[in-house]
Amino acid sequence: MNTLLFIGYALLHGRLAALEFLGRRSPGSGRLRIGARRAILLSTPELVEEVLVQRTDEFQKGPALRVYSRPLLGNGILSSEGETHRKHRRLVAPAFAHQRVSRYADVMSAMARQTCHAWPAGGVISMHREMTRLTLGIVGRTLFDADLLQDADAIGSRITELIRYATDQTRSFRPVPLEKDTPQNRRARESVEKLNQTIYGMIEQRRASAEDKGDLLSMLLLARDEEGGSLSDEQVRDEAMTLFVAGHETTANATTWSLYLLARNPDVQRALREQVRAAVGMRAITFADLPKLPLALEIFKESMRLYPPAYIVVREPLKDLEVGDGIKVKKGELIAMCEWVLHRDPRYFPDPLRFDPSRFSPENEPKIPRYAYFPFGGGRRICIGNQFALMEGQIILATVAQYCTLEMVGPKAVHGDPLMTLRPDGAVMMRVGSQQ
Asked: Is the pTM of this model over 0.85?
């Protein structure tokens, strides 16, 4: 499939459909374009593992993260390369160690309960907005000990503006430098400035108090490198902004898609509610309860199979090379590995469009081939917050099931909007029914 055919199919049927079509026609590899760059789609688990795990040093991140997200993320662990990435990942890793992540469960549970209590019985809510507010609140409290709920809508809209900017630049045949005076660039610069005020404000307050609260922000401010030097405010800002954005954006999408699937599958919603009520009753869910709530985790994982928040991973080779069985990739071309395509491939997931959480039961999940399912990427650059996100999703879904039933309002089908992340293409309106 040549790149012009891919572009034409995408214009007619949408980008996600074009990626699926390309994956079906070229199950090992296929050609496409990502903006001004030629790209090769790799769509077997073996090729994904080769690039992300076995030969990771031969590639760098694609331009979407390395270049066009830099105004927002700076040189944080999501966009940095080489020794900078390794050093900063070591600094951030303790905040996501298992023993620390488990302590975040009480915050997640309390904020999920607070959100559910605020929903009016019989009322209609925009679920994506609610999940964006909730996950922003959770990341603010757990990683920065800050209450962000009051400003959640404004923060969410600024992040959306910058995600759309980075997406447009990535797909453009002629990317426009951020310094150039255009309406979109002005909005993007204003959004960066406003978000910087939030992050730098938290840094300034914490430096002034000199208090070690044991959260990510304290770890970054107290961190010392091999020579004993500390991070500058700008370096702390970059890591904090990266985790601030990544820590809520993908989870907001994943929980929204999960609740959408539950609203469309009332039998699964009922089974989850019964499991939660039997194991926990109506009290707050704790970390110790999670092993008794496996269905919530299985639902969350299955939703990330059907609607992976990070739906495509792009790498750029550092030199001309070959992958797999003679697939030639030139320096300057891109390699794309698409979760949306692999997660819906019937070779690995029978009846792939069916919502079936039992795929991720303890007896079935080990049967899934490695890297046929990779919602958090893989290898040395696997998402550092993957356990945080899985626990957060499990707690949110279980808490919602405790308190209410959900049903869709208006058109039943919601489609994906493939920006930098896979967002719903609308508000996802749901009616809340009380179960108390």
From this structure: yes
